[in-house]
Design goal:
By secondary structure, this protein is α+β, with helices and mostly antiparallel strands. It folds into three domains: 169 residues, Muramoyl-pentapeptide Carboxypeptidase, domain 2 (2-Layer Sandwich); 61 residues, no CATH class; 90 residues, no CATH class. The strands form six sheets. Strands 2-4-5-7-6 form a five-stranded mixed beta sheet, covered by helices on one side. Strand 11 and strand 12 form a beta hairpin. The longest helix is centred in the N-terminal third of the chain and has 22 residues. The N terminus and C terminus are likely disordered. The structure holds zinc ion (ZN). The site of zinc ion has 5 residues, from strand 5.
């Protein structure tokens, strides 16, 4: 086995980096479930941030414009970073009328996802909590406020109704009934991530939906409901693909190019367009095709790569061509140096050149994986797929 060259070391690093990306990808879907969070018995959605935000994002993607932000506002304070600052526009207008009129509001809860409601309901720690999918918080028209007695009159004056002493912090503000959309959002997100265990997408909260919601990873699913779309482009050395995946060409010994051939990673060894033979280092050459680097080829023993990807020997070699089979033309460049063509497919009859491997040992030490540009391009494509969110 040849000693590792810089290119092979890079290929090994790339392979290891790819493994790490894969591990990070799967880690997101492991760990606690929504039911585990509820089983703590606390009236809190702490630990649920991943799936909660994914459901909120999914619903806003499924129903663009359905909810609007009501915060930040100079007189509105959210009691926790876990409060989703979304309401229907009519409810937002009511809350803003109160705040604009000089009453400061502390909001403890506004729009809640189905997973939020599941945890609050099943924890048993919240006193009063509606069953998942039945709360007006899922419609984005309810708010729970701090110091309710001091803001009640102002909220009622803006059109919000107080639920009464059984849930004194809760006000229902103007808006329509969108509760089934919160359920539907979960059902669709579940199905996208569990194609082998699909459930009805009916917007109804039944036993099927409840059991899947409990088994849902608290950190969120691996695949989002809506795939973002982007125009392929370069951001420095980073290639952003059509699904907004980001791949760092720089990590693969390449730069990002955007030209007549499209957006792609171009090897730093290669011209962006056209065919060329290049030297990777003193001992290896490779062929470039429109910026893509082919597999490296080792120069025969006793020669070195020079100029435009040619392997040359510094001393005149033993006369191998004369009187032999006449298959190895050894062109001289200058009076002492001799160049040996090592294009792919060539079969120079030179000691040290292995016809069996096409002149190069392309394997990464310890693996069966090929090195070089083709391998790097495959890994980049895999990384791009994995880095989508
Ligand atoms: Zn409430």
């Amino acid at each position: 086995m040849n000693p590792p060259t810089p290119l092979r070391r890079l290929a090994v690093k790339v392979a290891l980096a790819s493994v790490c990306v894969g591990m990070a990808f799967t880690a997101r879907a492991e760990g606690q479930t929504v039911a585990d969070i509820a089983a703590r018995g606390a009236c809190s959605t702490a630990g649920l941030e991943g799936i909660s935000q994914q459901l909120a994002d999914s619903q806003s993607c499924m129903r663009p414009g359905q909810f609007v932000r009501f915060a930040p506002h100079p007189r509105i304070t959210l009691s926790s970073s876990r409060v989703h600052p979304y309401l229907q526009a009519s409810a937002r207008d009511a809350v803003h009328r109160v705040a604009d009129g000089g009453t400061s509001l502390t909001i403890n809860s506004a729009f809640r996802t189905l997973a939020d409601q599941y945890v609050l309901y099943h924890s048993g720690g919240c006193g009063l909590a509606a069953t998942p999918g039945s709360s007006n918080h899922q419609s984005g028209r309810a708010v729970d406020v701090g110091s309710y007695s001091s803001v009640r009159a102002a909220l009622e004056g803006a059109g919000c109704s107080w639920l009464g002493s059984r849930d004194p912090v809760h006000f229902d503000c103007p808006g329509s009934d969108l509760r089934s959309d919160a359920i539907l959002t979960f059902q669709r997100l579940w199905n996208v991530n569990n194609p082998g265990d699909r459930i009805a997408e009916d917007g109804l909260y039944g036993p099927q939906t409840e059991s899947r919601l409990g088994r849902t990873p608290a950190a969120g699913f691996a695949t989002d409901l809506c795939v973002e779309t982007c125009e392929r482009h370069c951001e420095g050395d980073v290639l952003v693909d059509a699904e907004c995946g980001r791949g760092d060409c720089g990590a693969f010994g390449a730069t990002c190019a955007d030209d007549a051939l499209g957006v792609r990673c171009v090897s730093v060894f290669c011209p962006a367009m056209g065919e060329a033979d290049v030297c990777l280092d003193e001992g290896q050459s490779a062929h470039c095709s429109d910026g893509a680097l082919g597999e490296p080829m080792a120069c025969p023993e006793g020669s070195r790569c020079a100029g435009e990807g040619e392997c040359v020997v510094d001393r005149a070699p033993v006369d191998m061509g004369t009187g032999a089979e006449g298959d190895a033309a050894v062109p001289a460049t200058g009076d002492a140096a001799v160049a040996v063509g090592v294009d792919a497919g060539a079969d120079p009859d030179v000691p040290g050149f292995s016809a069996a491997t096409g002149g190069c040992s392309c394997g990464v030490p310890g693996t069966d994986a090929p090195a070089g540009g083709v391998f790097a391009a495959l890994l980049l494509a895999a990384a791009l797929r994995r880095r989508r969110r």
